[in-house]
From TrEMBL:
Pfam families: SDH_C (PF18317), Shikimate_DH (PF01488), Shikimate_dh_N (PF08501). It comes from the Bacteria. GO terms for biological process: amino acid biosynthetic process; aromatic amino acid family biosynthetic process; chorismate biosynthetic process; shikimate metabolic process. Pathway: Metabolic intermediate biosynthesis; chorismate biosynthesis; chorismate from D-erythrose 4-phosphate and phosphoenolpyruvate: step 4/7. Homodimer. PANTHER family: BIFUNCTIONAL 3-DEHYDROQUINATE DEHYDRATASE_SHIKIMATE DEHYDROGENASE, CHLOROPLASTIC, SHIKIMATE DEHYDROGENASE. HAMAP family: Shikimate_DH_AroE. Belongs to the shikimate dehydrogenase family. The active site is at 73 (proton acceptor). This is Shikimate dehydrogenase (NADP(+)). Keywords: Amino-acid biosynthesis, Aromatic amino acid biosynthesis, NADP, Oxidoreductase. Shikimate binds at residues 22-24, 69, 94, 109, 224, 252.
Length: 283
């Protein structure tokens, strides 16, 4: 264990506007401490007008990279010199790494989503997935499901045109379910995901008629504040297999940690209780 940082410390961080709500410093800080690394991970509040200059300046220091959260994910992809297939497909980057030949943009949200679902052991090849939403998070989730070889994909969004555009780009075989018919689609779905902003901060819950759902369906909510949304509470009450957005947050952070600090994030002691405490303590 290092006693404070040395001049050789590796550092990275997360840039957002705002960034005060971000759990990433707690998450990364826990892993850095557990491994006793000479490293730091910092929050950076950066307005959109200063984002590009900030990243380019940071890339000229000994920083190894940067996580990017709202509203900078598209700008992060646009300024990078290279991008991974995941970042290109999603059209946004949440992970920038700095290299002698330039800035590499990646997107680990899709991997984080798949990691969150892993304990439920989904059999993608025989599953129908229903994605609710067609914004940035939905793009990552649709990309993840398509690359995992899901058998059937259904997309439902309040604005149907956005669902159609998303399908045309990432999942041409997907079925589009009118928003008012989303409950009926539950009967077909083995995996149901909320990728809308509904339920965030306990407002405007996404209410579903879970009595129509398949028994044993896996239900995931990308929202994690609150941890148990009305969407998840209803699914849980109906005896379905529920997974909250915190597991996706942890899952998306692991590839970043490896890229920044050159170590796998330790599984033990688990970071989830640390984040639960942070969420509970948050005003
Ligand atoms: P976004 O691009 O702004 O998309 C918002 C989505 O919510 C759209 O599909 C929008 O539908 C829908 N929506 C908003 N208000 C609605 C309403 N009143 N009724 C029906 N639909 C409504 O946002 P995003 O970046 O995709 O984020 C979505 C959620 O995912 C957020 O809560 C975010 O915190 C979460 N997220 C979690 C993680 C994680 O690690 N767990 C990672 C990324 C994002 P329209 O197209 O009709 O407007």
């Amino acid at each position: 264990m290092t006693d404070g940082l040395t001049g050789r410390a590796v550092f990275a961080g997360v840039a957002g506007d705002p960034v005060a709500h971000s759990l990433s410093p707690r998450l990364m800080g826990h892993w850095i401490r557990m491994l006793g690394l000479d490293a730091a991970y910092l929050p950076f509040a950066v307005p959109p007008s200063g984002f590009e200059a900030f990243v380019r300046g940071l890339a000229r220091t000994q920083a190894s990279g940067l996580n990017v959260t709202l509203p900078h994910k598209e700008a992060a992809l646009a300024l990078a010199d290279r991008a991974t297939p995941a970042a290109k497909a999603v059209g946004a980057a949440n992970l920038l790494t700095f290299h002698p030949d330039g800035i590499l943009a990646d997107n680990s949200d899709a991997a984080g989503f798949l990691a969150a679902l892993e304990p439920a052991e989904p059999d993608y090849a025989s599953s129908t997935a229903l994605v609710l939403g067609a914004g940035g998070a939905a793009r990552a989730l649709v990309h993840a499901l398509v690359t995992s070889g899901v058998k059937n994909l259904l997309i439902s969004n309040r604005t149907a045109d956005r669902a159609r555009a998303l399908a045309a780009e990432l999942a041409p075989d997907a079925g589009i379910v009118p928003w008012e018919d989303r409950d009926a689609a539950l009967a077909e779905a083995d995996i149901v995901v909320n990728a809308t902003a509904l339920g965030l901060k306990g407002e405007n819950d996404l209410v579903m008629d879970w009595a129509k759902a398949r028994s044993g369906a896996i239900v995931f909510d990308s929202v994690y504040t609150p941890l148990v949304t009305g969407f998840l509470a209803g699914a849980r009450q109906a005896g379905l297999n529920t997974i909250d957005g915190l597991d996706m947050l942890i899952g998306q952070a692991r590839p970043s940690f490896r890229a920044f600090f050159g170590h796998d994030a330790p599984a033990d002691p688990p970071v989830r209780p640390v984040l639960l405490e942070a969420l509970g303590a948050r005003p």
